[in-house]
Write a structure and sequence with these properties.
Elements lengths: L2 E6 L6 E6 L2 E7 L1 H4 L9 H11 L8 E4 L3 H15 L4 H11 L6 H9 L5 E3 L2 H10 L6 E7 L6 E9 L2 E9 L4 H11 L8 H7 L8 H8 E3 L5 E3 L15 H6 L13 H29 L3 E5 L6 H10 L4 E4 L5 H16 L23 H10 L5 E2 L3 H13 L4 E4 L13 E5 L6 H9 L9 E5 L3 H4 L11 E4 L10 H6 L4 H5 L15 E7 L5 H14 L3 E6 L11 H10 L4 E4 L2 E4 L20
Helix pairs in contact: 3-4, 6-13, 7-11, 9-11, 11-12, 15-20
């Protein structure tokens, strides 16, 4: 048996993944273990977990593969410094400290992890992304599109996967980057780069794309084939300073928004504009990928592939018959891609045919026994009940949700990637018009404008949304069907200077808590093969209410990683206003607990990302 450990790290979202004869055995982000969001350190705990899940010792590994070629990244940093010198000295020193520090210690870290020196292979960054997209997909042959900030030199690649082979047929290089353009606007609008881009995407529907032409005239030239070039006169990121400069500020009406300050109309409009520009570019790139590869199937990865609005546009465009997006599309997924690439190219393992994807619902993280759950509950002195029968438990939880209760849901293996998919989720009733604001403000402690996603039974999705096919990983956006909508004058809001808080609570459909202001929703279609427990709960909720979907958001509060263990789940439950904790087959009702003092000081320490 060939067993390969993949590692990503030292930038953001470190992770480890283990592949055995092409089967994904385990994958997890280091942040879930360390409890430091976007942890960039060597993924020691994640790697140890992967070895434990595979029931192997370190000396049984055939290879350890890193998701980036550090020498080529160093070459990019040096070339960039020579190009912009003498400016950027501070940024150059920071980059060199990383290149000549952490990354050169990689082999030492691996030796410590494995108990002795082992060879560490490198896989190019975008090749790791491409492998993570193609190999787990259900396709024997497909085009591959990877888009992110930057790898070693490339910021975008188009590839072609066939069987076990991947060929990169086109690349675009640094500093020209769709990902960095989007991150620059993210920073300008007051959100944190490498974590706040999804907030910008959620903000976009509140605005009008009035600056789209300005962006294409001044900031980026996008050609018919989707290739592009940034106008670097507006950006300072090559020098290691702020993403954008005073010239950018003047172009869009003033200085950047300070974090946590009021979001103004100009921020909404700029978010809408850069989102539209990104969608135009991605669609053109997809058409080029179709032409270059001749394939009618597309796979995607890289951080920009997490932009589910752009993915939904591609789905509607019909350029490809099928699209599959890697659920851990960002840097964490690079660990998986590196392990898969080595497995299929260096060791000659053959891909087995599959009608469904090989990602296993992305439920690739740790699971916990009933004994571990009981020990954690008893340690906190909590009252609980056990309902071992699956159908009975589903009916009880569905009834609570129908009564407006908010439920923390902990079941089976933890998800790999940024989305909770029913393993570590917070669930609510999408029919409740006040649920979006309640869950944002009292449960998640985050901005109230942020939309929630629906988890919907896969066999019911076409009844509620303008969508066909599957979206198991929350990576496609679709419109709520007209018969479920309620009249809502978004144009009037966009034309004025209204505070967005007022528009959040206006019902827009019969499932208002998951319907964004433009009638869109970020879909998770739930198949019983991928998530049987969640599918069972959705069926019970439909039987009770006629609605085959639930709000599904990640089980965490703002600034903290998604919970991993029973201890993490209990801690989050006690700190928030969730009504019910379902932890495997145990139910913990808040109303039945002894009142206790809860230290709220942690709220002031939440990272405002």
């Amino acid at each position: 048996m060939t067993q390969v450990l993949g590692i990503s790290g030292y930038y953001h979202d470190s992770a480890a993944a283990l592949v055995a004869d092409g089967r994904i055995v385990a994958a997890a982000q280091e942040e879930r273990f360390s409890r430091r969001k976007h942890d960039a350190s060597f993924p020691r705990q994640a790697a140890n977990y992967c070895l434990q899940e595979a029931f192997i010792e370190a000396d049984q590994l055939d290879a350890v593969v890193y998701y980036d070629d550090s020498a080529r990244s160093l070459d990019r940093v040096v070339r960039n410094a020579l190009t912009i010198a003498p400016i950027g000295a501070d940024g150059f020193r920071d980059a060199m400290r990383s290149m000549l520090g952490d990354k050169l210690r990689l082999r030492e870290e691996v030796a410590v992890l494995l108990g002795g020196a082992r060879p560490v292979w490198s896989c190019d960054h975008h090749l790791s992304h491409a492998a993570s997209a193609f190999y787990p997909s259900p396709f024997a042959e497909a085009a591959i599109l990877t888009v992110d900030g930057v790898g070693e030199h490339a910021t975008l690649s188009i590839g072609h996967g066939r069987g076990e082979a991947i060929e990169i047929v086109r690349e675009i290089g640094y500093p020209h980057s769709l990902g960095l353009l989007y991150s620059a606007v993210t920073a300008y609008c007051g959100f944190k780069v490498n974590s706040g881009e999804y907030k910008l995407m959620g903000l976009a529907p509140y605005g009008r794309p009035v600056h789209a032409r300005t962006i294409e005239d001044e900031l980026i030239e996008i050609r018919e084939d989707g290739s592009f070039a940034l106008n670097m006169e507006y950006f300072d990121f090559p020098a290691g300073g702020p993403m954008v400069n005073d010239r950018f500020h003047a172009l869009f009406g003033g200085p950047p928004r300070a974090g946590e300050s009021r979001i103004e109309r100009r921020h909404m409009d700029l978010a809408a504009s850069v989102q539209l520009v990104l969608e135009h570019a991605i669609e053109r790139l997809a058409r080029t990928a179709r032409r270059l590869t001749g394939s009618d199937r597309l796979t995607m990865a890289g951080g920009v592939a997490l932009n589910c609005v752009a993915n939904g546009r591609l789905h509607r465009a019909g350029i490809f018959r099928d699209i599959w997006v890697q659920p851990a599309a960002g840097d964490a997924g690079g660990a998986l891609g590196a392990a898969l690439y080595a497995t299929y190219t260096a060791f000659g393992v053959k891909r087995a045919p599959s009608t469904r994807d090989r990602q296993l619902g992305s439920r690739l993280g740790p699971r916990f026994t009933i004994a571990q759950v009981v020990a954690a509950l008893d340690k906190e002195g909590l009252r609980y009940e056990r309902i071992a029968d699956d159908q009975t438990r589903a009916a009880r939880v569905a009834a609570a949700l129908a009564e407006g209760k908010v439920v923390g849901y902990f079941n089976g293996r933890m998800e790999f990637g940024p989305r909770a998919l029913g393993g570590r989720s917070i669930l609510g009733d999408p029919r409740d018009p006040g649920m979006q604001a309640r869950m944002n403000l009292s449960i998640k402690f985050r901005e109230s404008f942020r939309p929630f996603a629906p988890a919907v039974m896969h066999e019911r999705v076409a009844d509620w949304f303008e969508f066909t096919g599957e979206s198991p990983y929350m990576l496609m956006v679709a419109q709520v069907k007209a018969e479920h909508r309620q009249p809502f004058d978004l144009a009037q809001f966009r034309a004025g200077d209204s505070d967005m808080l007022g528009v959040v609570g206006i019902p827009r459909s019969s499932v208002p808590a998951i319907t964004h202001v433009d009638y869109s929703a970020r879909l998770q279609t739930v198949h019983p093969d991928d998530a049987p427990d969640l599918h069972r709960l959705l069926a019970a909720f439909e039987a009770a209410t006629g609605c085959p979907m639930l709000i599904n958001t990640s089980f965490n509060v703002r600034g903290e990683p998604i919970v991993m263990s029973p201890d993490d789940a209990i801690r989050c439950f006690l700190r928030t206003e969730m009504d019910l904790l379902v932890i495997e087959d145990h139910l913990v009702w808040r109303s039945e607990q002894t009142p206790r003092e809860v230290d709220d000081g942690w709220k002031s320490e939440i990272e405002l990302d």
